[in-house]
Design goal:
13 helices; globular; Rossmann fold; single chain; 3 domains; Chemotaxis Receptor Methyltransferase Cher, domain 1; 7-stranded mixed beta sheet; alpha/beta; 10 strands
Length: 304
Amino acid sequence: MCSQDLNFETLLNYLRQKHHFDFTNYKRESLMRRISNRMQQLSITDFSKYNDYLEVDCEEFINLFNIIENNFTYFFRDIGDWHYLSNQIIPQIIASKRSEEPIRTWSAGCSSGQETYTLAMMLAELLGLEQFRQRVQIYGTDIDQEALNQARQGSYLSDQVSNVPGSLLNKYFERADDRYVFRRDLRSSIFFRRHNMIEDPPLPRIDLLLCRNTLIYFNLEAQTKVLLRFHFSLKDKGFLFLGKSEMVANPDLFSSINLHHRIFVKVPGGHRNPHLLVKAFQRPQYGSDKLSRLMPGQLSPFLA
């Protein structure tokens, strides 16, 4: 290993130990490129010197984190995929339930909330406002607390809502000075929380799970672990909606509904392999703590 690679690994270890963010699950080339871009902005050419800079400037980690996470999202991203979801998938979910039964959805890696609110508008259009308020539960999660704070406010500048059709903009947003704010009476059905999809327990009993353009930044091992957790999250025949550049490689977990639109359905029973369960729920503990694991004997709730 050359000195530059060694310094890079030292930097990642520092970030893991000091800030408790394990970026080793990210694709190496992409991660190195993003960190190098930040270093160029500071005229730093060596990873070891950037490590020193991080130790001195306590605000720098936030700048680096935002670059690595690349919180780039907008309403109705890949609108054709959303039309398919609205016309073909959500009606199936509604039809499969009793009239009073809740509909639980999860927007994982939601960033500042645009896709979460896009989903909310589609569900409200299909269910009606009253049914939406009574039945829908939408969970938006991310590891970026600052982005989550923006999402909770549901407040966006005019250029950020430019992709929202005019009829929906007028129906679901209120104008407040130079901003558009998502309807407060519907936001009570939307819950934003901090969640690390690689380490934290997955949300249970989900009917529809969105995770778009997030998995592409993870290496293959991390992608596999996340998809296993998503499988546990979803109800039998629950749906998974991914980004354009993302795929599911394991047919035992998900089968494709429409590859072009990146929509998949859970294969029931595909997680009944104790070895896969242990792999999915391994959770590293930092500092001097030992690695804690869920062993096969502790996994009976997931095998039921």
